[in-house]
Amino acid sequence: MPKFLSTRISVVSRGGGSKGGGGGSAVDASGYMDREERESEYDGHKYHPDAKEDLVHKEVDLPDNAPREYQDPNVLWNAVEMVEKNKNAQLCRMMKASLPNNWSYEVAKETVRQYVMDNFVSKGMCCEWAIHDSVNKHGQRNLHFHCLMTLRAMDENGKWLPKQRKIYILDENGNKIRRGKNYLCKTEQVTDWNDKGKAKEWRKNLSDLINKTNDALKINETWEHRSFKELGIDALPTIHLGSQANALENKGIHTERGDYNRKVRELRGLAKFIDYTSVMIENYKKAAATKVAEVKNEIVDLIDRVVKRHNFLKLPLVSGVFLAKVSNRQMLQDPSNMISFLEKNDIKSFDELHSFSSGHLAEYNKLSAKFSGYGNQIKTLMAKIEAYDRFKPFLDVFRKSESLKGLVKWKYDKENRVTLEAYPEQLKAFRKVVPKGEKIDPKKWNDEMAALFDKREDMEGLLQKEVGDLACVEVIDFNKKNEEREHRNDVHAKEKSKERERTPSRKSHQAER
Q: Which residues of 169-238 form beta strands (DSSP E)?
């Protein structure tokens, strides 16, 4: 069964809001995406986004003809608001789409950037996009991105163009047809961005890019943009909750739509995750019991407390430097895996953990520097090979000319006059890359480059191991701080509860008349 792409594409309209969130303001929608306060110059309203710690990355990408100050999203979306005069104007298009949860943040950023550039920016749209990641109470991840796209095109000077243009209807002689005080006309969209088929095209392009990326990463997971009906699958799809039902569900209040989706997920086998969690907890209990029997370990005690509270380890969504480089982050939430990490490296205390981290951070930096050095050498060799490939046709003609004499040389030079005249400039360009005195040896350069690629591949495995170990340290440190904070909150709540029990409530009595 493929993984089905989840997307929502809607238009943010002034007054009418948006089915996709963001209210009726492009400025508000932008602030929601990048978790920043915004102020609208159109109506002076200040927008305060949800205080969520799920922001992974945010970015603005512009076509070449757009003003550079639009790199600031506050400037961009206020400009969008100000150019629209109608009280019910359509302001921007909003897209939300799921991403593979087993991707690293770096892979997600590169892939979304390519998708936005290819499908929107290259067509003339100004785009702001952000990647969010979150974990629900069941430990399920939700890696996804939001994107805002402008609806108006721009001219070559960066000025907004109308969304529509008026086309006059002409008679057989090419003259306008008058109807009363006006002429017959029709409106025509300036761009094809609102065409009905665009949403399906964008969905297909996204699923194709995800599958291409998965293939490159050797991830055995195929994504599908088509619906069950289009694929001929006899299965019930889930339905969109909507903002009102979603708000009620978040408060623990069941809705008809929520109950329907729960039943559909149950029929599709949502219990697989529950089975995985049960096995994970049982494995942890066995590993923890064995470990406690062997030696007291303060980190194992911490993991035990966290699991009792949450059933799995929490992840630092934003602050994890090495966590962002790990693809299978779910493995880091498994307490059994974390205990195996501690046992393998003989770590029994937080002091030993931080000593381990310092040593391996130094090793990572050393390996990373070598890895980058190999990359720079490869770039230099590739530049030489490419320069030689460009120069070789001119060099071959020049050498042939030098080997000839008399009338044969005169005839050959005449036939290749343009190439020979260009030779000095081509030689000059080539020598900027391959200095004079260095032997021209493409075979040697290719052999050296192949050897460097092998070294980089070997070193990449060592780097991945260091990244995995340092990500484990980040997860443990985060859970230690988070558990201390939650413990303080528990103590504070108990003290408040006792204080309320000691202080009797005061009842007001109405004076008798």
A: 178-179, 182-183, 185-189, 223-224
